[in-house]
Design a protein that fits this description.
single chain; 321 residues; alpha/beta; 8-stranded mixed β-sheet
Length: 321
Amino acid sequence: MGFFNKLFSREKKEKLDSGLQKTKDGIWGKITHAIAGKSKIDEDVLDNLEESFITSDIGVETTLKLIDRIRDRVARDKYVNTTELNALLCDEISQMLVKPEEIKDDKEDFKIPETDRPYVIMVVGVNGVGKTTTIGKLARQYKNAGYKVVLGAADTFRAAAIEQLDIWGERVGVPVIKQKMGSDPAAVAYDTLNYAKAKGADVVIIDTAGRLHNKIGLMNELTKIKNVMKKVVADAPQEVLLVLDGSTGQNAYEQAKQFIAATEVNALAVTKLDGTAKGGVVIGISDQFQIPVKYIGIGEGVEDLQIFHPEEFVKTLFELK
């Protein structure tokens, strides 16, 4: 229970339970059907579980890997009855998930690494996934943790994106560096980092254009932004955060594949999990791309953007206390 006591408050646990309720109901309904009338885990149960997980948006490859792990575990333990299945699933899935570095720390959730300041987060993702909202919530969380935060409106392709980020900046009380629509995104990023250094900021969050017009164009644009930022902060961006909409299920996999091919994504945020039964996508994306899911969105409130704790996520899905 040390992990729960140190890192996961009861309030956060309750919000996670509520936010994942639809996914939990969906997965449990399918598992209940898979083991109906069975006292032990046999090939029929495994076949039914395979179908259940695939239809829960965990993904085919991850499902097959998980089924193989369960089969090996049953063979090794000789006899595993169906009442032990949830504990077995919780254990095996937890081991498969890529864990963010932050959960190894027993202090604040929203804590940046001990690197030269500012710590730069470049945020990528298509329009409509909750990218700008996620940036606003991140700004609030980092500010609440005691950091000085600056936002950069480098999504100059869409006028509404600049306005939306401006609104979040005012709401959160952090400066937003911007230019007019159609300006060079790299120039905005450059100005933002110069401002942040001059003001002694701790965290810079850069918004980028939310479109996948083509892989080559996207790659060139993001590469240019990164190269220009390095002229100001040598190791920027330390974090390239891809925001995905969990409610889109398999479409989120395709978006992840394209963005990971276009730039060096090293962290993921999965949003809108409270409004969908497709939360299993978090498991598949983490496993398939071997990139840690760092944040999950489980509601509209600022506090509903949480650092992703794999063990607590899996415990919630499989109702382990």
